[in-house]
User: What shape does this take?
Amino acid sequence: MLESLLALGGLVLLRDSVEWEGRSLLKALVKKSALCGEQVHVLGCEVSEEEFREGFDSSINSRLVYHDLFRDPLSWSKPGKALPGGPLEALRALDKKTSSGPATIALDSLSWLLHHLPCPTLCQTLHALSRQDSCPGDSPPGEQVRVLGLLHEELHGPGPLGALSSLAQTEVTLSGTMGQASAHILYRRPRQHPTHQTQWFSILPDFSLELQVEPPLESQPRSDPHTPSVDPTTHLTFNLHLSKKEREVKDSLTLPFQFSLEKQQALLRPGLSQATSHIFYEPDAYDDLDQEDPDDDLDV
Amino acid sequence: MAAAGTCGTGTRSTGSVVAAASTNNVTSFQRRGPRASGADSGCSRLVSIAGTRPSVRNGQLLVSTGLPALDQLLGGGLAVGTVLLIEEDKYNIYSPLLFKYFLAEGIVSGHALLVASAKEDPADILQKLPAPLIDDSYKKECDEDVCSHKTESDIKMKIAWRYQLLPKMEAGPVSSSRFGHYYDISKRIPQELIETSKWHGFFLPEKISSTFNAEPCSLTSGYMKLLQFIQNIIYEEGFDGSNPQKKQKNILRIGIQNLGSPLWGDDICCTENSDTSHSLTKFLYILRGLLRSSLSACIITMPTHLIQNKAVIARVTNLSDTVVGLESFIGSEKETNPLYKDYHGLIHIRQIPRLNNLIYDISDVKDLAFKLKKKLFTIEGILSTQELNPHLLQLLYCKWILLPLSHQRLHLPPDLSDTVSRSSKQDLAESAKLLGPGCGMTAGGKKHLDF
Assistant: This one.
């Protein structure tokens, strides 16, 4: 699962909530890309550096380049120590640093950035970050820059969530049932239809991923909020159902205005089978049965 | 189509009128007024520009949108000087196709192009345009599809056989190759066509300054820059008639992609009440003013599904001339609906302009769906290929009888609904709810309808 998430490149959005946290998945992805030998930059805003590095072994920790915004977000301390210019400058600096070779940028978290920056500016910066390649669409996926963003979806309204979803190439929504976490993944490949996938997983203490089988759905008692449905056809004075024989007869019925083959044949044939129509006339006593044409004396 | 026939003869006849007027030995009728000498200076009332034709209804100059089926729905084409707004579908798969068709039509007709985007480089957009199809290959495509459809439709059209006589929405290849071409999406446009065309690109990340300034002006800086760019091009290239040396008039086709998205710097998709909520509407207003005074047509795709404030969508619709909405079935419950199984989405014509006219040019078929085949994008009316379900009619009849009998919510009996599709059941249930209170009150109590 991790390979497929990292394969597409671009912005990978991890949407988590209070019940199903996403930082462990983010760390698993960071570990995976560090093991692949890529440059990994982490912009830490919500947790301290020690807490983020906890659980990684030394080889991975040496590959992580950590940019700390947690300790001094407003740059109150001496300007030399913390990142100057605030979060926006930090992002733009990342843009310049990752211009060579494949890289992964982990943003922990996008929610913090959304609260400190206006949404359109953040979207524009993320777009600039994730389209690092000089010839888009032609470069191999390994050369692209991947941006992993952790977003706490309960903190934002539908506006920013929708805006960031439309930017993301891959969107992972974390949920789960009964203690088992699941990821609903939406892949938006550039010129293809989006594809969905749901994967049940669990993260081990060393931040490697283990796929799980979907837990069996327990049969919940179906609470029917509506009143039991009334079958209106039970007490009717007419019959609405068709028996099988009636259905067959109905299907084989020729409709009156349908110009079917039989009618066509019947019209074309001169009428050998049918008798021509006769008029049977019984004259009354008062009828004038003059065989002569009454119009003969007219000078027409 | 009558329109296609008259378009060819119409332009030919005006040409011949002009020819007859200039050669004054053919007819004894003298033309009053200053005799025009030569081909320039507007002696012909109808401007004869390549790729345009006058509308048969009101003489308005029209350009093709690149999709002849869409042209037919819009009353012949897109009027010069107007804006076509495409409301994007949710995953933005089909609206770029319409955008590309418009631009490709411009290249094939020899119009000038202006492509503006905040997401993609305009040079890359132009590289991905579809290749034009010559008439013969389109006929082959059409025939293949017709054969596959004929066998299906013969079986179904038993009761509603009169619907077979309804004309299909698609027009065949237009006889005159000057208006409306067909394109093959699976192939790219040949490079030499792009090189011979005149195009201008506006890519926002290059134009905008890197420093973040909270400007107090009412228009977002991205929009302001785009408007200035468009105005410059119109003035310099003489599309508004300001450059009188230019003899050959041409149309400028403007394409703006993803207008209103956060990448343009507009937060209308992010918040419901924002300080700069009027910048998009002001942009459209100024753009329309620019278009009306020049020989240009504009297509804009906008992600209206992301806009949080619904009042803004209504304002945007009013400020645009023609509005077409795309709704794709991906991810929605309509994907599994058997009614829509052949199609990929619905097209809603939300607005058609009344230009110099008192009435609208609305087509008769209201339910339109589109389908993306391997090479073509087609638009069809749904009702023309579906029979009227006899069970549906039966259901409507018994609902009318049964409503006063049961005051509870009417649930359709399960065994009657084996041929009725699920969504039409829901539609009927909703219409039953609408009928319910009315019928209940007029019936008044548990009176049974006796026959």
